[in-house]
Amino acid sequence: MTKALVTGCAGFIGSHLTQRLLNDGVTVVGIDGFIDNYDVAAKLRNLAEIGNHPTFTFHSTSLHAQRWDDWLDGVDVVYHLAALPGVRNSWGKAFIDYVNHNVLATQFLLEACLERAKPPVIVASSSSSVYGTMQGTLTNETAPLRPVSPYGVTKEAMEQICSVYAKAYGLPVSMLRYFTVYGPRQRPDMAFHRFFRQMMKGDPVVVYSDGQKSRDFTFVTDAVEANLLAAQHASPGEIFNVGGDREIKLIDVLSIMSGLMNVTPQISFQKGPVGDSLRTCADIQLARQRLGYNPQVTLEEGLRRQLEDMRLQAKG
Q: Which class would CATH give 3-182+218-244+279-296?
């Protein structure tokens, strides 16, 4: 039976991945440091969703504690999702925290895996933020990396440190560049969660800039599937885009959401934050060819599932 380590297991994607692994019969060691970048109660709810599974061992601590003998014992695969996310908060004095959680913690992990008699396969989570604002048609993995935020800079640095360990030592680490993941348990600071919450309360929906920014959105279960596929098929140092079914403007997404709720929201357009990409558009052909990745959940269906989950949370 496979044994996996999931860092950031109480987070948005991490909790879904942990549940999927447990449902698939995998023994899971989970680590989460409960970084207070958003309400810790949300992460505790995510853990409650996982439940007291007999093959799940949870450690409430940061990777900086470096208890590798406990965490990596018998582990075949490491899914590294622990990070400090978010573009808007990565400026100024907070940058050192992003470096610590996104770069240094990753290097600690790679060193620890390298010291094992048989290093585990590692799948590290990156972000489309490494590209900055994308040009032309679809963006593939060979496009220039031009992050426009300190957060994006730290994710690029995380990729670079993984790449040098793969090149120098053959460490079996691959990287996934997620394109705006959404769905049940999405972080409360992210746009879809905010839009639904504001409409549920009858508040004006705050849209940054003019709503013409476009994104490629990925449903969370598709992101989970990409992790599992990468663990099976990726070679050391490979990097893959993980996107959804299409690129769409944010104002058009809001129209879909208001249709699902049968409301006509009042929209409050506000100045966009510094460091936000104007456009993301994923070319996922490499992931299709090398991993067999094929997103299954359309944006309309994914939004319906997220709304259903948020309504359940509101009742509970």
A: alpha beta
**For the chain, which residues make up each domain, given as ranges?**
3-182+218-244+279-296
- Could you give the CA distance from residue 163 to residue 157 in angstroms, rounded to a whole number? 10
Of the residues 79, 131, 151, 182, only one is catalytic, namely: 151
H helices of the chain, where? 12-23, 40-50, 68-72, 95-99, 105-114, 150-169, 191-201, 220-233, 250-261, 285-291, 299-315
Q: What does the buried/exposed string (b/e) look like for 100-112 if buried means 16 or more CB atoms within 10 Å of the residue's CB?
A: ebbbbbbebbbeb
- Provide DSSP, 248-308: EEHHHHHHHHHHHHT----EEEEPPPTT--SB--B--HHHHHHH-------HHHHHHHHHH
SS3 43: helix
The sign one gets for the Cα dihedral 179, 180, 182, 187 is: positive
CA-based radius of gyration for the chain:
19
State the Cα–Cα distance between residues 259 and 75, nearest whole angstrom.
46
Model confidence over 262-315: pLDDT tens digits? 999 999 999 888 888 999 999 999 999 999 999 999 999 999 999 999 999 988
Residue 208 appears among annotated catalytic residues: no
pTM score:
0.97
Q: To which H or E segment does residue 77 belong?
A: strand 77-80
